[in-house]
Amino acid sequence: MSSDHRRPLYCFVLGTGRCGSTLVHEVLARHPDVGFVSNLEDHLPWLRIMGRCNNALYRRIPPGLSRKGRLRYAPSEGYRALEHQVSPALSTPLRDLTADDATPWLVQRVRTFFESRAHVQATPVFLHKFTGWPRARFLQQALPGARFVHVVRDGRAVANSWLQMPWWRGYQGPAQWQFGPLPASYEAEWESSDYSFVILAGLAWKLLMDAFVAAEQDVGAESWMNIRYEDIVVDPRQRFGELLQFLEMEWTPTFESAFVRYHFDPVRTQAFRTDLDASSLRLLEVSLASHLESYGY
Question: Using CA atoms, how far apart are residues 259 and 27, in angstroms rounded to an integer?
């Protein structure tokens, strides 16, 4: 519940993972009108911490003390807390969740999880991030009126980044990863590549992007915003202005003071061109061509 006793606007930042969604989530969370789940709540879910001071504390912490890869305090996807307090159905599904998954017991748990925190934090907007499957159609059923920001990144860059992550389970094949089985056409494509891991990472991106397209169509344009990571790092002020407008928030002096402390670096947007060998990159570009083109890559 917001400070003027109206129901808050729930917004979900969505992305495939390794797509820049964390950057969007963390910058927006510096706005004084935004509530969120913190990593403290996620690591100690049994304490049922509601994060009353999350926003005020996060705004006072320099970006350097909330950076990934170190001991930090920051907004979190909260998967441990969601698993404990809602269900693994929301935290670790092997397929996308749709409106058909919105059974009364699961919807009630989702509402309790988010509404209790929104009430305690008393901000006009409550922000949360999910990566992997969009889950948007389910979330729209559970929290009507929710809005969704889909952070898109070049699939070549996402695939390249996944391949370098220690948690990437694609090296064990689709039977062991978190995305479920490949569609028959994607399975055949992987086989024809002689089971290339680079192609498999690209297929995972395509699989998720297919789900995002379906979710966007069902959710509706008025509740959905696509924004490319590459556009954000080139012109962050313009793009975050558009995000704030979508979320019905003003660019306040408090947000400005936080925003100017961030460094937006476009250097790594093309790293896939040197990180991948030429042959694999050619195959990957052929595989992803239509999906890349649909997002202007």
Answer: 7
Among candidate residues 168, 177, 170, 226, the one with its CA nearest the CA of residue 21: 226
Backbone angles phi, psi at 265, to 5 degrees: -115, 115
3-state secondary structure of 223: helix
CB of 133 closer than 8 Å to CB of 213: no
| 206 strand-pairing partners | none
Asked if 13 and 149 touch (Cβ cutoff 8 Å), the reply is yes
Tokens of 182: 């490949």
Provide the 8-state DSSP code for 87: -
The answer to whether the beta carbons of residues 234 and 266 sit under 8 Å apart is yes
DSSP 100: G
Task: Name the pTM for this structure.
Answer: 0.95
Q: How far apart are CA 257 and CA 60, in angstroms?
A: 11
For residues 146 and 143, give the distance between their C-alpha atoms in angstroms, rounded to a whole number: 6
Measured distance CA(239)–CA(77) in Å, rounded? 22
Q: In sequence order, which residues have a C-beta less than 8 Å from that of residue 85 and are 6 or more positions away?
A: 45, 48, 109, 112, 113
pLDDT tens, N- to C-terminus, the chain (297 residues): 334 447 899 999 999 999 999 999 999 999 999 999 999 999 887 777 899 999 999 998 877 777 776 678 999 999 999 999 999 999 999 999 999 999 999 999 999 999 999 999 999 999 999 999 999 999 999 999 999 999 999 999 999 999 999 999 999 999 999 999 999 999 999 999 999 999 999 999 999 999 999 999 999 999 999 999 999 999 999 999 999 999 999 999 999 999 999 999 998 899 999 999 999 999 999 999 999 999 999
Q: Which domains does the chain have, with CATH numbers?
A: 1-153+221-264 (3.40.50.300), 156-219+271-297 (no CATH)
